[in-house]
């Protein structure tokens, strides 16, 4: 069961190119967990309710992701073993409407994978300076809750959005991207 606290006020605000999901919270810059931390190999637990602690985590994650020039961040990467992901993908392709703005994915899971694969040189905030040439399914169907607790099922047809979603969900499952391909650059 999922509960959204009734007193939650949500608004996404863009201030000086930094995202504040909950405009009444002051975001904090969190320390990134980096390799070789064993925390990156642990599976994250599901969120059962969006409370003030979760709101603060989301706000802090957006702030931290932006300050580190990332496009996606899972909570485990800031030391919190919860299934929370934030993303802000450049609008370079045909994407489902939900992903055209900075977004939150809670308890995300991939429901199905397509048969065609694509290759991409991925980076990761938890592996500074490392680039991996990965091979991932192009099409996925993903289920998740947004920052208001609303259920979503989205079909993703490829590109950086598909890569980012798979990469961040892998983080919540304790899977690191170095297992998905070959080292390109250190």
- Count of discrete structural domains: 1
Order of helices and strands: EEEEHEEEEEEEHE
Helicity level = 10-25%
- Number of distinct helices: 2
Q: Could you tell me the strand content as a percent range? A: 25-35%
- What structural category characterises the helix and strand content? alpha+beta
Mean pLDDT: 87
> How large, in whole angstroms, is the Cα Rg?
16 Å
Relevant CATH superfamily: Peptide deformylase
Please give the largest β-sheet: 5 strands, antiparallel
Can you give me a brief rundown of this structure?
Belongs to the polypeptide deformylase family. The active site is at 168. The chain has 186 residues and is α+β, with helices and mostly antiparallel strands.
List the helices and strands and how they pair.
Blueprint: E1 3-4, E2 13-15, E3 18-20, E4 49-50, H1 52-67, E5 72-74, E6 84-87, E7 103-113, E8 117-122, E9 131-137, E10 140-145, E11 151-156, H2 159-172, E12 181-185
Parallel strand pairs: 1-4
Antiparallel strand pairs: 2-3, 5-6, 6-7, 7-10, 8-9, 9-12, 10-11
Enzyme class: hydrolase
InterPro entries: Peptide_deformylase, Peptide_deformylase_sf
Active site: 168
What can you see in these coordinates?
With 186 residues, the protein is α+β, with helices and mostly antiparallel strands. 16% of the residues lie in helices and 31% in strands. It has one domain: Peptide deformylase (Peptide Deformylase), CATH 3.90.45.10. The strands form four sheets. It has a five-stranded antiparallel β-sheet. A three-stranded antiparallel β-sheet has the order 8-9-12. Strands 1-4 form a two-stranded parallel sheet. The longest helix is centred in the N-terminal third of the chain and has 16 residues. It is globular, with a radius of gyration of 16 Å. The N terminus is likely disordered. It comes from Candidatus Cyrtobacter comes.
């Amino acid at each position: 069961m999922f509960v959204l606290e009734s007193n939650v006020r949500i608004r996404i605000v863009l201030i000086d190119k930094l995202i504040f999901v909950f405009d009444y919270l002051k975001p904090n810059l969190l320390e990134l967990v980096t390799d070789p931390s064993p925390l990156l190999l642990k599976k994250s637990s599901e969120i059962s309710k969006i409370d003030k602690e979760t709101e603060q985590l989301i706000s802090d994650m957006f702030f931290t992701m932006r300050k580190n020039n990332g496009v996606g961040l899972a909570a485990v990467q800031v030391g919190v073993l919860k299934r929370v992901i934030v993303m802000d993908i450049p609008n370079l392709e045909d994407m489902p409407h939900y992903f055209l703005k900075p977004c939150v994915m809670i308890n995300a899971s991939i429901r199905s994978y397509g048969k065609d694969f694509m290759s991409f040189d991925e980076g990761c905030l938890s592996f500074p300076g490392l680039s991996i040439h990965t091979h991932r399914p192009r099409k996925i169907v993903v289920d998740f809750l947004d920052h208001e607790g609303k259920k979503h099922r989205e079909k993703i047809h490829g590109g950086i959005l598909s890569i980012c979603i798979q990469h961040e969900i892998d983080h919540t499952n304790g899977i690191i991207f170095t297992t998905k391909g070959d080292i390109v650059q250190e």
